[in-house]
Design a protein that fits this description.
It catalyses: (R)-pantoate + beta-alanine + ATP = (R)-pantothenate + AMP + diphosphate + H(+). Pathway: Cofactor biosynthesis; (R)-pantothenate biosynthesis; (R)-pantothenate from (R)-pantoate and beta-alanine: step 1/1. One of its GO terms (cellular component) is cytosol. It is a single chain. Helices cover 35% and strands 19% of the residues. The chain is of the alpha/beta class. The protein starts with a strand and ends with a strand. The strands form three sheets. It has a six-stranded parallel sheet, with helices on both faces. Strands 9-10-11 form a three-stranded antiparallel sheet, covered by helices on one side. Strands 5-6 form a two-stranded antiparallel sheet. The longest helix has 22 residues, at 234-255. A hairpin with a 5-residue loop joins strand 5 (115-117) and strand 6. Helix 6 (165-180) crosses helix 7. It has helices at 7-19, 35-45, 75-85, 128-135, 158-161, 165-180, 192-204, 234-255, 261-274; strands at residues 2-4, 24-29, 50-55, 90-92, 115-117, 123-125, 184-188, 210-214, 278-286, 300-308, 311-319. It has two domains: 2-214, Rossmann fold, CATH 3.40.50; 230-319, 2-Layer Sandwich (Pantoate--beta-alanine Ligase, Chain: A,domain 2).
């Protein structure tokens, strides 16, 4: 298993394998790997000859007030786990994908929350990338300025409370695709909106990459695997089980004939709040367009984001009647 840090070296490595006729699968991650990530890697191996895993905590998808500084990281442990799989051919773990002048990784360092003004005068959140550039008075124009927006799909669900998140995700994934040049990329469907946004970006911009969505991996008690789970106290973790339970109850109700989405959402919200969670959103949306539904008339997904303590968890469940 090769560990590659520089984009140019990663691109050269991939091209050597492609010239030899080998197909490449990419599994993008932000590290602190768990069984959910390892399941993506196993799926990747069945889709291509060569498997590449990227490890990069992307500051472009965090606003300065979010949890970039506390996002869990264990790169040595991640590399050990990946080597033990015996199916990963390369790990791409760049120090900074936005540092174009190698400025000591300042762009990856978050600081206090701040806002700036959009052209129309409205307050607009900025990412850690832009804040770092403003702190450094980047007058020479060398900082990162280009962002990819999937405009409609990014607006609802997580996009409401995290306005910079999906442009940061789309941008860094596009960068990874250009660097690794994979034939296939695997994304977990726990981040359902993210998966759909990447699918649309690939379609709209004609990336020669097949996107595969992998099903959610859960703990035996039903909690969706997440790198943030380690930040839950034992009591908070027990309360967080209400998310999956509420989704299962809503799915059962829908399959039993309850197709009124407002009533189904209310049941989800009630179960989570009674357990002590704080709802960010609970929505029932069309699986393709992510538009909110009033009644279930087509395949939908029930999406939830909720806080337990200072940890924000997301989960979802597809429903096809």
């Amino acid at each position: 298993m090769e560990v590659i840090r520089e984009p140019a070296a990663m691109r050269s490595w991939s091209r050597r394998h492609r010239m030899a006729g080998r197909s490449i699968a990419l599994v993008p991650t932000m590290g602190f790997l768990h069984e959910g990530h390892l399941s993506l890697i196993s799926q990747a191996r069945s889709c291509a000859d060569i498997t590449v895993v990227s490890i990069y905590v992307n500051p472009g998808q965090f606003s300065p007030s979010e949890d970039l500084s506390t996002y869990p990281s264990d790169v040595p442990g991640d590399l050990l786990k990946l080597s033990h799989t015996a199916i990963v051919d390369a790990v791409f773990c760049p120090p900074n994908l936005y540092d174009y002048q190698q400025r000591n990784n300042h762009a990856a360092e978050p600081s206090s929350g701040t806002t700036t003004k959009a052209n129309d005068g409205r307050a607009a959140m900025i990412s850690c990338i832009e804040e770092a550039s403003s702190v450094e008075d980047d007058d020479d124009g060398s900082g990162h300025e280009t962002w990819i927006r999937v405009e409609k799909l990014e607006q609802g669900l997580c996009g409401k409370s995290r306005p910079v998140f999906f442009r940061g995700v789309a941008t860094v994934v596009a960068k990874l695709f250009h660097i690794v040049e994979p034939d296939v990329a695997i994304f977990g469907k726990k981040d359902y909106q993210q998966w759909r946004i990447i699918c649309r970006m690939v379609r709209d911009l004609d990336f020669a990459v097949k996107i595969i969505g992998s099903e959610i991996i859960r703990e035996p008690d039903g909690l969706a695997l997440s790198s943030r789970n380690v930040r839950l106290s034992p009591e908070e973790r027990e309360k967080a089980l209400s998310i999956n339970r509420s989704l299962l109850r809503a799915k059962d109700a829908a399959q039993s004939g309850q197709i009124n989405c407002e009533e189904l959402k209310s049941s989800v919200v009630q179960m989570i709040t009674e357990a002590g969670g704080r709802i960010d959103y609970a929505e029932i949306v069309d699986q393709e367009s992510l538009k909110p539904m009033e009644k279930i008339k087509s395949p939908v997904v029930i999406c939830v984001a909720a806080w337990f303590g200072n940890v924000r968890l997301i989960d979802n469940m597809e429903v096809v009647l």
